[in-house]
Amino acid sequence: MADKPRTNAMYSIPEDVAASTYRFIIVAAKRARQLQNGQRSVLPAANKKPTVLAMEEVRRGLVPYTDLDIEQPAIIE
Which of 51, 71, 60, 50 is nearest to 16 (CA)? Predict the structure, then answer.
């Protein structure tokens, strides 16, 4: 009997057209590192791991980030 992959909404990566999976993972990883270093979560912690908290915060849009890959207009003087 083949094992089915575990699908849990808590651990799923959002399928947003505007955001990429890579961006989600990078932002969540950086947020998890902040939580591990002592920064407080904006969500109730209820014995969740920092990685799970970070993913949930990013999924809900509670973690601000700046996309540096977007081309910005050149300033000509």
Answer: 60
State the pTM of this model: 0.66
What CA–CA distance (Å, rounded) separates 67 from 77?
A: 25
> Could you give the CA distance from residue 54 to residue 4 in angstroms, rounded to a whole number?
26
Render pLDDT for 32-41 as a digit per residue (tens, 0 to 9): 999 999 999 8
- Domain ranges in the chain are 17-59
What is the C-alpha separation between 4 and 16, in angstroms, rounded?
24
| Cβ atoms of 51 and 57 closer than 8 Å | no
